[in-house]
Amino acid sequence: MERIITLAHFKKFLILLGFLFLLGIYLPKIVSDSGEKNLYVHQASAFMHGQLNIDQNLQDVAVYKSKYYVPFPPFPAVLLLPVVAVFGVSSTKVMLVSLILSLLNIFLLLKILKRLEIDSQYIYWIVAAFFLGTAYLSSSLRSSSVWFFAHIVAVTCMLLALNEVLWKGRGLLAGLFLGMAFLSRQMSIYALFFLLIVLIDRNSLKSFKWKASNIIAFFFSLGLCFSLYLLFNWIRFDNIFNTGYSYIALPGFLNERVARYGLFSPVYIPFNLLYMFIQGFHVEFSSATHLSGITMDPFGTSITFASPFVFFAFWAKWKNKLLWGAWISISLMIIHTLLYYNNGYVQANTQRFSLDFLPIIIILVALSLKSIPKNLWKASVVYSIIMNVLALSIIFLGTMGF
User: Fold this and answer.
1) Is 13 among the domain residues?
2) How many CB atoms within 10 Å of residue 301?
3) Is the pTM value of this prediction over 0.90?
């Protein structure tokens, strides 16, 4: 008995140590954070002043008819509206908002795992894997930037949608949450297939009339979000399908890619496929002598070598139709991503676009664990976290002049 108590205390000590470590990383970033760095803060300010364009020509803006627009989907800016209204642009701490969302995301994932009746011995390992062993960690630590904040918001909305379909199954709310995810990261739209199948399955005992009205409500709220996005595009760029990405002044090789092949092309598949599934942990020495200037490969590390536990999803045990729905959504997200001109550059030990399908695939991972040796599962999670910490440490050393 004494040994068990001691082990329990040791685990709590490790959790506390990990929390203090993350707090030590987050706090300096929150203190130094300024809304001036984030396009969504400027977009929120523009909304407050009754306009869609922003006043400054900042990195990654879309320039159209001599006006500056934020080309990225607008929901993260809507979320920041009350914060910007109270604190103003320069004093808005996007990192703090991201931290609050991350705490909400932990709560939501715990709820989802309990609704799936996952064995309690796995739950906290899954949470650690999701938030510390994937692209989520580096994205949250860099969420003062527009791209990474969009990922955090999209994950929140997706977890809200998943929690809803697995809980009360209200189509109106599930569709709204998916719409919010889509208005943060467009690739989220492919989760439609999985969410719809789960929604139908969870309400299988209800009357046909109730199920039909629930599905209609799902598509109504999702369709409303989709329509607002098309209207948003049309007002800004005179075309409902023009997001403004083609008007971004891209740097170097990215500009060369888009000029030759466009935003989407099969020619991008080999590069993106390699970095998504094959590329290993890669450290670079960027000085003239290649002996210093240590940094991480800016194109990242594949999920195979950064977060190998995600492949346990192939051993998930669930109803066939639910598994098919999940894999259809995941596959469509991956295929669309592989056709894109950019694989998520700049990133470290991750493929940040994997966050689009991570909320779905982590469910499959959770449902596979009874078929996976415990030691193999735990070792893969520990490995993933260590590699993330190692990558962050290497980046830190690079900033110190090594």
Assistant:
1) no
2) 24
3) yes
